[in-house]
Amino acid sequence: MVLDEQRAGGGENAPGFGQKLESCITGEKDQRRLTWRLLSYWERLRGERDFPTLSDVKAEEIPELWPYCFILDVKNFREFPYFHYFGRSLARYSGVFLSGHQDLSHTLLKKAVCHYREAVERGAPVLVEEELTQFDRRRLLFRSVLLPLSEDQVSVDYLLGAANGAWSDGAGAAPALRVPPPGQD
Hints:
Elements lengths: L1 E2 L1 H5 L7 H10 L7 H13 L22 E5 L8 E5 L8 H5 L8 H6 L2 H7 L3 E8 L5 E11 L8 E10 L18
């Protein structure tokens, strides 16, 4: 399921769209979801511009989020964007690389970046909330976000993204998805 401004309130032209989105991101101290906290950071960086730039993004400003972040270069690629940065905590959800499996379609990483074209074409944030069954049959509930960055304020050059999740225990209710406290990743 893709969560974007359409779901948040019927699109940018819908009455109250800005207030609905702002109310989701302004309660940052109370917001535990990684995706909404990174969206809030992106909004602050953006200010009155259409997009923040890559140089605006500072790891030291978001140390508790940074290990779950990635940056995709969407301007200098041929078939698929490459990772300009890849957070160390994302490896735990990328067991396919460690197991020798070649099928990336069942990884958090693949699911987190699969909407990159939509984020580039729309020039807007794309939030995703899904469940996937990994190659080893474990179920992962995850959230991810893709946030456009632009050096010229016209075309999207990079996407700042983040993803995290929780393994489903198979006992019905899914565990809460949240960023662990700093130092406990």
